[in-house]
Amino acid sequence: MAAVTCNSLPDGLDPVIRQAAESVVTVQVAYTLKEHPVVETYASGFVVNARGHVATSAHLLNGFRHVLRKPGMRYRVTLFDCRTYEAELLSESEHAGFVPDTAILKILAPPDNLMPVAIGNSDDLKKGDPVFAIGSPHLSNNAVVPGEVLETGVFQKKPPLVPLIQASTVINVGASGGALFDASGKVVGLTASCLGADTGPAGFACIRNGFFVPIDLVMKFARPFIIGAR
């Protein structure tokens, strides 16, 4: 798989942002035949608990629907400090009517010092609240993008028709699946998509704002797969 560009968290970074960033990961997926990657893609994600469960975007898997459970599939999670671990897919929400674009992975041998996110309450968000998104655009980790909540309860025109959070944060390729945090550093959403895009020198990028799956829905989807897991 391609190497992740490791960007150290800078000295003097706000402690709230630093702690949040330590919970965000890079997710890579590849299907291999005889040890040679046939298809490979990447996204962001975040650590849900100390047992190694990771939330990410289901659309990361779009090119792999026919081989998701086959032996050639590989899932790799790279932490904020570039330690890398193999993972397995537990579930993804392609057919879940109540939550869009969410997948749950499990790190196979999680380290003892794994840093899970602090879970917030997306129902408490209001228009104008400050937020920041963290992800790994273009396989470059620890990218922090500040913004504010533009709307809550936004419905897109395509199913599943569930309320999303809209925020003024720019999303580049690979940032999907990352985390949206409130001002206290609690995760309130999973990066899903953007409104208005352009293709420039740096590749695909949002030119207006992003949509996020509320963390309440993400955890509702994830809970059956992580309760009682070791």
UniProtKB/TrEMBL annotation:
Q: Which InterPro entries match?
A: Chloro_Bact_Ser_Proteases, Peptidase_S1_PA, Peptidase_S1C
The GO molecular function terms of this record are: serine-type endopeptidase activity
What's a GO biological-process term for it?
proteolysis
Which UniProt keywords are listed?
Answer: Hydrolase, Protease
Q: Name one Pfam family in it.
A: Trypsin_2
Among SUPFAM superfamilies, the record links this protein to:
Trypsin-like serine proteases
Q: This protein is called what?
A: Serine protease
Protein species of origin: Candidatus Yonathbacteria bacterium RIFOXYD1_FULL_52_36
